[in-house]
Write a structure and sequence with these properties.
heterodimer; A: 71% helix; B: alpha/beta; 6-stranded mixed beta sheet; 38% helix
Chain lengths: 287, 264
């Protein structure tokens, strides 16, 4: 039967093998150093350049050394709270993050649902896609006056701005993901008669997951961009208003510290969504 | 008495092309038979299989399975796709389990379905890799999971769409032996699309040769009169095997040579 079994067994090999020299173990620290050293070097160079450029008598912006002196409290203790708006950066960032979390969560739920709808129904696609394509080009802040008029309160207005900013890439990417579910998977589903909600849940959602997470990643980035601008206008606790407030009291050093924090938090948000995406879509890439 | 699977005057045309892909294909298949469909690329072999699977509608004529007209896909005609079509986010076990849960829910309880999945994985010798995902196993292994998934649906007809086309020669031979073994054990009715002459002769009871498309139809049907089990090594020199092989080659390369190659 089996082609191999009809052959006579080969005589056991008695050839002595030369002893292989142990290979040197690859170092684990060297690659880490190679990763960490270049950005540190560039950072140091940029700092030095900045210090040099901002130290002249006509400089309009403070050099790093002055930022350190001016904003020492802010840098060293992000957790202080002296009541009112006089809080550490942590509290401002937390307030902004809460708004983003709420607005983004809403837009994720609504966006994925709408994306699924227009991705799977040609009628909805034709009806809604042109409207979405126009609305998505409206800048986030342009929604703020309208939402202030509608909600008559700062907090829900800011959340609405986040929602409306983040939702477009989520809708569009989800729809593209649904449209791109390979015909092979649809055939498999057809043969085992997987239909309706089960088909959506077991085939469409996992197959579209990489696209959905691309949309979410773009969405969270835009939310963070929008919240800073929105908070400058609505006031209250939040990193956006903190920056605006510092500008009004000419605390340029505070602004620089806040910008660094804003950048770091935005970077972190991006990484968190990317990580969630990697966990949720493991295995779906490449087959 | 109806034949088990009855393809009658089947024509398939696509909206945009002036000529039908297949024209008046007639084919009767008995229960337990292993039939290979062979022809040049573009002759509509896969289209024929997709119609039997119910994934494509027939333009004219029709397909009867046990006297009943086929209308739409179903687990009684399980397909092993050329590119395996495993769901990459599920493990091998889960891929088979999804099909079993979906198709045999009424007949088996949870424990029985679990055992049935394992039994089918064992049938294709994939028990060891059951918890791996498709992108962690080789092409041949993926195809074996595809076969296990199809068999686990307990199909009346097993449809193989060039199942070994994307595999290297050694893996292909190994899988062919396994399919022969499974066919001998389960007596499943099989329709296999292929463009490999040796594969067709080695595995099938009958070989259906299609003429060139468009407007392709059944050119000739060759009965392979070789007793089973078949051994590829012994058969290589068997005059009956050689004769069958020559007949198919002669059909494909002399009487119905590939039009694309002829023009070149």
């Amino acid at each position: 039967m089996n082609a191999v079994s009809t052959k006579p067994a080969a005589a056991p090999a008695v050839v002595s093998r030369p002893v292989l020299a142990a290979l040197p173990k690859p170092s684990r620290i060297v690659p880490i150093i190679a990763q960490v050293v270049p950005p540190l070097m560039v950072l140091a160079l940029l700092g030095l350049g900045w210090e040099y450029l901002a130290s002249g008598p006509n400089a309009t912006l403070p050099p790093p050394s002055k930022v350190w002196v001016d904003a020492r409290d802010l840098i060293v203790d992000p957790f202080f709270d002296r009541g009112g708006l006089d809080k550490g950066l942590f509290w401002h960032l937390l307030a902004s993050l809460q708004r983003v979390a709420l607005g983004f969560a809403l837009s994720a739920v609504v966006g994925v649902a709408l994306g699924m709808l227009i991705g799977s129904s040609p009628f909805c696609m034709r009806g809604l896609d042109p409207i979405f394509q126009v609305l998505r080009t409206v800048p986030p802040l342009a929604w703020l006056p309208l939402s202030l008029a509608a909600f008559r309160e700062a907090q829900p207005s800011a959340i609405f701005v986040i929602f409306i900013t983040a939702i477009w890439p989520i809708i569009i990417n989800t729809a593209v993901g649904v449209l791109n579910v390979p015909q092979d998977y649809r055939n498999v589903a057809a043969v085992i008669r997987l239909r309706g909600l089960a088909f959506f849940w077991k085939i469409v959602l996992p197959a579209a997951a990489p696209y959905i997470f691309t949309g979410l990643k773009i969405g969270i980035g835009l939310s963070w961009l929008a919240i800073i601008a929105a908070e400058m206008l609505i006031g209250g606790v939040g990193i956006g208003f903190f920056i605006w407030d510092a500008w009004n009291s000419s605390n340029l050093s505070d602004i620089i510290v806040a910008l660094i924090y804003v950048g770091l938090v935005g970077f972190m948000l991006d990484k968190v969504v990317a990580l969630a995406g990697r966990i949720a879509t493991r295995g779906t890439q490449a087959s | 008495m109806h034949p088990f699977l009855d393809i009658t005057k089947l024509s398939i045309a696509f909206p945009k092309s002036p000529l039908p892909v297949l024209r008046e294909v007639d084919l009767k298949i008995e229960r337990g038979e292993y039939v290979a469909v062979i022809g040049h690329s573009g002759c509509g072999k896969s289209t024929l299989l997709n119609v039997v699977a119910g994934l494509l509608p027939a333009t004219a004529g029709g397909v009867l399975l046990e006297g009943r007209e086929i209308s739409g896909p179903g687990p009684d005609r399980a397909v092993v796709f050329q590119n395996h079509s495993l769901l990459p986010w599920l493990t091998c076990y889960e891929n088979v389990k999804l099909a079993v849960d979906q198709t045999l829910k009424g007949e088996m309880n949870k424990q029985q379905r679990h055992d049935w999945v394992l039994e089918n994985l064992a049938l294709v010798h994939m028990t060891a890799a059951k918890d791996k995902r498709p992108n962690e196993i080789s092409g041949g292994m993926k195809q074996r999971i595809g076969i296990a998934r199809a068999l686990a649906m307990r199909p009346k007809v097993l449809l193989l769409d060039e199942p070994f086309g994307a595999l290297d020669a050694l893996t292909r031979a190994h899988l062919q032996d396994q399919v022969m073994e499974i066919h001998a054990r389960l007596k499943t009715t099989v329709i296999m699309i292929t463009h490999d002459v040796d594969e067709a002769v080695l595995l099938s009871d009958r070989i259906v040769m299609l003429t060139n498309g468009p407007n392709a139809t059944v050119g000739e049907i060759l009965t392979v009169d070789l007793e089973r089990p078949r051994d590829r090594l012994k058969l290589a020199a068997d005059p009956r095997f050689v004769a069958a092989r020559t007949a198919v080659l002669e059909f494909l390369h002399s009487r119905h040579a590939n039009p694309a190659l002829q023009a070149a």
